[in-house]
Every structure is written in C-alpha cells, then in structure tokens.
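Narrative of activities, Objective 1.

The group set out to show that a structural description can be obtained from nothing but a protein's sequence at a throughput compatible with the screening campaign. Below is one input-output pair from the validation batch, recorded exactly as produced.
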Amino acid sequence: MATVTKKAPPKASATADAKLAIDVLADRVLVQVGQAEGERRSRAGILIPATAQVSRRLSWARAVAVGPHVRSVKIGDTVLFNPEDRFEVEVQGEEYVILRERDIHAVAATRFDGGTGLYL
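Output recorded for this entry:
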C-alpha cells in the first residue's frame, strides 16, 4: 500500500513578494504606456486634460516583452497603437497593455537604418 505525503502550501507572503517572469505567447506584445498618457501639453504649452476628447488618436508605448511569433518588434522598441484595441493588465502594481502584432501601426527604433522598412 502506497503512502501519500502532503506538502504544506507556501506562505502567501512568500509568493506575493517573489517576482514572476512573464513569457508572452504567440504574436502578442506586452507594452508599457508612459505616465504622460493622461494630461499632455500642446506645442504652445497649453495643458490639455485627460478628459478632453480627441477622436481616433493613436498612442505610443515601449515594448517590454514579445512573443515568439512576433517579427517586427523587439524589446525596447517604441510602438504606435490604437488605444481602443488594447487589453490592460496589472503586474506587480505596474500597468501594462497586451497587443497583437497586427494591431501595431508603426515601430520606432534606433536599429532601423532608414527607409520605410517595407520589402517585396
């Protein structure tokens, strides 16, 4: 007859303090939106509140993780996306956004040597 021993579950405080590694799957990109997403200033210095409606304005964010099937975005790139097509997630008290690669409109990175990046 086999005996079964039960392990005590880990303490909640020990697992809550440990940082979890996040592995993004498929064609997903995990980005962090800058703190200036709410209020912003115009070129003339006028403060525009976060409650002001701007129709169809795209947002910039920094890629912090990419899935294995993502071809055009690398970690550290700045990406342009539609804020309506996003899923927000909170990890360790920080706000992140998960996007599909096809929902990204443009990539700004120093590794591009010029041109549009288009190929035939």
